[in-house]
Design brief:
alpha+beta; Deoxyribonuclease I, Chain A; six-stranded mixed β-sheet; 8 helices; 14 strands; globular; disordered N terminus; Endo/exonuclease/phosphatase; Endonuclease/exonuclease/phosphatase domain-containing protein; catalytic activity; Endo/exonu/phosph_ase_sf
Length: 315
């Protein structure tokens, strides 16, 4: 697990001598970008990330080179839908991929993509990418479907994290600078995450009443709103403590800005290295060399468990 940034506080259950393990991710609407443009966006998002949510995909996203080489590969689960107009995807880093199971056939429109993750000795959680269309011909029927489906998923998977373009704000007028109709925000607040479902808007949890926006319209129709969200169930936040949610601006010309997030947990154990040392050792024929290397592996693994920042010399 990537070590936390400076100033990170250990969570309950950690010793305080080494940083608590944590996972990081991002959500981004790529707006039907070309394969090359999507690859560029992914290259910016991938750095240090374990979970990436994408929306409005035309085709399955390409993998950045660090995630597509070596013995371990990332997991890409995309739901494009027949029109291939607004597909969604969840991408997990090679560290999480071995513990993940994609959920298929959630919908036929590409609105949802979900992956179940079960780490050893940790609660199972569901990572969901969400796209809520804003066009009039899709808005009503798709939003009703999303409200019901997200409710069903929440009942089955109490530890739920969602990243997506909801095309709606949670608090009006705090999350917008344009004249958003009441229906736009009431749909999300009342149907998708009503108080009974106990969802947490991670940005508001950590930033209070600060005003920032994720989507900016064209100069001819200026407006700004925070419609790209990272939402977690209350149960998820109790088990996997959200530590940061920040709006990024990698590309100033983009309509949508990505949202980064991270969460930690005392439950996550050591994850397997990307290149299993056992396979390298088996290639050797000298028993003494094999025994010697096995000791190096044991010592290195012990040091890494004691301090996640200890460099892995096996590379």
């Amino acid at each position: 697990i990537t070590p936390p940034s400076r100033g990170h506080k250990p969570v309950k259950g950690s010793t305080g001598h080494s940083p608590a393990p944590f996972l990081s991710g991002a959500t981004c609407n790529v707006q039907k970008s070309s394969t090359r443009a999507t690859s560029t966006i992914l290259g910016q998002l991938e750095e240090g990330k374990d979970i990436i949510f994408l929306q409005e995909l035309n085709k399955a996203p390409p993998l950045p080179s660090p995630w597509s080489s070596g013995t371990s590969r990332a997991l890409v689960h995309a739901n494009l839908g027949p029109p291939r107009r607004h597909g969604s995807a969840v991408i997990l880093s090679p560290r999480l991929a071995p513990f993940a199971t994609p959920l298929d056939h959630l919908d036929n429109e590409g609105l949802l993509a979900a992956v179940k993750v079960k780490l050893p000795n940790a609660p199972e959680f569901l990572a969901v990418s969400v796209y809520a269309p804003c066009t009039e011909d899709k808005k009503v029927i798709c939003r009703d479907f999303l409200a019901r489906k997200i409710g069903d998923l929440h009942l089955k998977y109490p530890n739920l994290i969602m990243g997506g373009d909801f095309n709606a704000v949670l608090q009006h007028p705090l999350d917008t600078e344009d004249m958003v109709s009441p229906n736009t925000w009431e749909w999300l607040h009342n149907q998708v995450i009503p108080p009974s479902r106990k969802f947490v808007d991670t940005y508001r949890l950590l930033h209070g009443t600060k005003r920032e926006f994720t989507r900016f319209s064209t100069p001819s129709m200026p407006s700004a709103s925070r419609i790209d969200l990272v939402l977690v169930s209350k149960t998820f936040n109790s088990n996997f403590h959200v530590t940061s949610t920040n709006i990024q601006s990698y590309d100033k010309s983009a309509d949508h800005h990505p949202v980064d997030f991270s969460f930690n947990t005392p439950f996550i154990p050591d994850l397997p290295p990307q290149a299993p040392p056992a396979k390298q050792i088996r290639r050797l024929t000298d028993p003494e060399k094999t025994k010697f290397l096995a000791k190096i592996v044991d010592i290195t693994m012990w040091c890494t468990r004691a301090n996640p920042e200890f460099p892995n010399f096996l590379e």
